[in-house]
Design a protein that fits this description.
Blueprint: H1 7-29, H2 31-34, H3 38-54, H4 60-92, H5 94-102, H6 112-149, H7 157-188, H8 194-213, H9 216-221
Length: 227
């Protein structure tokens, strides 16, 4: 079966994949790059949090903080399900949505097959988003159990390190879910035009890099140990 994608569609899709996949591999897999990010800085702060929590007999505040993380993660997971429902509706009733696209300036209205391909890409992205957020939610849940089970013993640092590792893994999947949201918005631009997908992908890449490496928040939380 020959896919009805033009050369420009293939180029746009390649730019989209490179922006998302290569950026994630560079930031998450290369230690020399990762340690300069806000993600690595917050990993260290969570380790300090768990070491401090180990010294507290009353950990209600710690559990409340973890509960706040779980609430925001649960909200985004639920939102991704709502997005998936909307995408399924657009897939089952394409004509009204295609008519809306047709009135946009410079838009390239996709035929039925191209519409299914473009909406299918969005479905794959937001299914991945849902799985990332729900796995992050479960790991934050595990963290709450580990925090409550930590002994009040300054020498048992391995318990604090265990809780920190699980919390940091949860935060990593939460961040991956957010990236899926951002690039899902970029993929939405493909419905309008392949050039819009290229532009949106580059803008999302720029914004992600700025927030993770050059933002005021990164400068505020970075420490000498992780700089």
């Amino acid at each position: 079966m020959t896919l009805p994608l033009t050369v420009l569609d293939w180029i746009a899709l390649a730019v989209f994949i490179v922006c998302w996949v290569i950026y994630a591999l560079l930031v998450d897999r290369i230690p020399s790059i990762r340690r300069r990010s806000v993600i690595a800085a917050m990993d260290e702060h969570r380790r300090r949090w768990m070491r401090a929590a180990m010294m507290r007999d009353n950990r209600i505040a710690d559990i409340a903080a973890i509960g706040n993380l779980m609430s925001s993660t649960s909200f985004l997971a639920t939102t991704s399900i709502l997005v998936l429902g909307g995408l399924v509706a657009m897939l089952s009733a394409p004509d009204p949505a295609r008519h809306i696209v047709a009135v946009l300036p410079w838009s390239a209205v996709p035929d039925e097959v191209m519409w299914e391909i473009k909406i299918g890409l969005l479905l794959v992205i937001f299914v991945n988003t849902f799985f990332e957020f729900t796995w992050a939610l479960r790991q934050f849940n595990y963290t709450s159990t580990l925090v409550m089970g930590m002994p009040l013993d300054p020498g048992a640092t391995h318990h604090a390190e265990m809780a920190a590792r699980v919390a940091n893994r949860g935060a990593r999947h939460f961040n991956t879910g957010l990236r899926s949201y951002y690039f899902g918005l970029a993929a939405l631009a493909w419905i309008v035009h392949p050039l819009a997908l290229i532009l949106a992908s580059l803008l999302v890449l720029r914004e992600l890099h700025r927030r993770e490496f050059r933002s005021a928040a990164r400068d505020a939380v970075a420490t000498r140990e992780v700089a």
